[in-house]
Design a protein that fits this description.
With 45 residues, this protein is mostly beta strands. The protein contains no helices and three strands.
């Protein structure tokens, strides 16, 4: 996996402070996103 050993900065956590907000980004040709779930947890995929 290309991202296994390093953190990837997507943006400030404040950009996804509210439930349902998300960020998308292209890193090395791979589409990634982070979303604030209904439970308030921030997840990245």
């Amino acid at each position: 996996m290309i991202f296994l050993r390093t953190w990837q900065f997507m943006g400030p956590a404040s950009a996804v402070a509210n439930l349902g907000q998300y960020l998308t980004l292209d890193i090395a040709g791979f589409g990634v996103f982070a979303i604030r779930g209904k439970d308030g947890v921030l997840r990245g995929f």
